[in-house]
Amino acid sequence: MVREMAAVAEAQQSRQGGRPLPPPPQPRMGGPPPPPSRPRSEPVDREKTCPLLLRVFTKIGGHHTKEDFVVRGKEPKDEVQIYTWKDATLRELTDLVKEVAPAARRRDAKLSFAFVYPDKNGRFVVKPVGMTHAYGNVRRLDDAKALADLSFQIGDYLDVAIL
């Protein structure tokens, strides 16, 4: 038994680069079960991974409509192309949008993010995925959401409403 445990510990160390895996969670007695943890995407090694091209469309006052994206090549003119990775957070994207959109630099500006993609029938969908504030000392829940955590697929557009 002791040899088996030592073999398991040794195998764990070789998988984790010398660090053992944490022990499995112990069942709790009494009370409700813990909430399921949200799967987090693996961080990307930005030195070794090629970035993706993210087409970002900004609009003051609200999101573009799905009809604005129907004709390929006739997408809205207010496009910014950003090279980024799937682990980019909405806070990172907020800071990038602020560099190119003066309205996003207002103290009271809010940025609402939505993915634009074709559904299984080829019709475009505009799906809101989060909101950030341009400024503020307090980071909000959506700030830390990464594209991959939000089910972003390469080729999706990002629509940003500046409110």
Written overview of the protein:
The protein contains two helices and five strands. The chain has 163 residues and is of the alpha+beta class. It has a five-stranded mixed beta sheet, covered by helices on one side. The longest helix has 14 residues, at 2-15. The chain is globular. Mean pLDDT is 84; it is low at 1-9 and 11-17.
SSE order and pairing:
Layout: H1 2-15, E1 52-60, E2 79-84, H2 90-100, E3 110-118, E4 124-133, E5 157-162
Parallel strand pairs: 1-5
Antiparallel strand pairs: 1-2, 3-4, 3-5
Briefly, what is this?
15% of the residues lie in helices and 25% in strands. By secondary structure, the chain is of the alpha+beta class.
Number of contiguous helices: 2
Query: Helical percent range?
Result: 10-25%
Q: What characterizes the major β-sheet? A: 5 strands, mixed
Envelope shape: globular
Uncertain segments: 1-9, 11-17
The tally of strands reads 5
- In what order do the strands lie side by side in the largest sheet? 2-1-5-3-4
Structural class: alpha+beta
Q: Report the sheet-strand fraction.
A: 15-25%
What distance separates the N and C termini? 63 Å
The SSE order reads: HEEHEEE
How confident is the prediction overall: mean pLDDT? Answer: 84
What is the radius of gyration? 21 Å
